[in-house]
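Continuing the series of single-chain predictions for the mutant panel. This is the parent chain; the variants come on the following pages.
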Amino acid sequence: MQSGHDGETGLQPLHEILRRGREAILQRWESLNRRTLAVAWALTSEQLRNNVPDILNELADQYEGSLNTSRYEPYPVA
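Parent structure:
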């Protein structure tokens, strides 16, 4: 299993992006919901995030578990 940046392309594996950027993703999720859903203002951060942290962890775990060196495709970092 590879980890870290891809030396040739400078790309990071998706599971690392999800884990390293977890809090930023959650903050963006919360911000977008508060801007677009009026009901979101009545919810706490914990209520609004609900199971999103678990989903991010599961996505990272599933992606990392599916990697093998013969079909490694890193995800581009913006």
